[in-house]
Amino acid sequence: MSSQLAAQLYTVRDFTKTPADIAQTMKKVKGLGYDAVQCSALGPIDPHELKNIVDGEGLTICATHTSYERMRDEPQAVIDEHQLWNCKHAAIGG
Length: 94
What we know:
By secondary structure, the chain is an alpha/beta fold. Helices cover 44% and strands 17% of the residues. It has helices spanning 19-31, 47-57, 68-73, 75-85; strands at residues 7-8, 36-39, 60-66, 90-92. Helix 1 (19-31) packs parallel to helix 2 (47-57). The mean pLDDT is 94.
């Protein structure tokens, strides 16, 4: 079993409210030496745009937090996004 060190983005949620904020934050996270992120509390962003940003920085999305309501009401969309991101771990965020 291998482990992975990732930045938990909830801790920088004040800096991930817009796509431009997210791009700038991902650049800084990569600059700190992280290769992976756990996406939580991001502002609205198209899943493909998020994929382009993380790919451009050489980051992977290793886990996410998704609301209970979204998992319940839009399970296929959640699955599709995680497949797009090659992310195997979706959790319900509190």
